[in-house]
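Following up on my earlier thread - several people asked me to post the actual chain instead of describing it. Fair enough. Here it is, all 174 residues.
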Amino acid sequence: MPYWDERVEEVGKRYTGVHWDKYHIDILSARFVLSPDRFDVVVASNPFGDILSDLGPACAGTIGIAPSANLKPERDFPSLFEPVHGSAPDIYGKNIANPIAMIWSGAMMLNFLGDSDSVYREAHDAIIRAIETVLVNGPRTPDPAGTASTTDVGAWPSPPRSKPDERLDTGSPA
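Reply from S.P.:
Thanks for posting it. Predicted structure:
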């Protein structure tokens, strides 16, 4: 991909403190599996990025917890936040999908918005703490060797409420 390589080299010249390497997709895939800790950020074309965004979390045992974002840093067009796993039609209606990736994607969105508003950043931090608690203490859906339902994982831990149907006060209408 000569055009892609030229763009990366051009941008790389502006960030002399950032070390970067070029890999062919076959060896990069092998290194993802054999030594994933060597990578912080991977920049790739869409087809290769799509493959790697499934391979990376699969190496950790499940793609069910991996968030993703397609960012437009200039913010002149919307950014997109979604789970890596997509819509998972094979498990539709079974109440076994892992909701962590969707929740984490929402937290990433709040973090992105938090550049200009600390309320978003605080909400992001609270969600990340909840995700960490669930990952350490459970419950877990079947994809990381658990037995809990989507509903169970999505509801735990949740903020205490005085009534089961009481909505959290977010400052905006429900």
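Strands lie at 67-70, 80-83. That should answer part of your original question.
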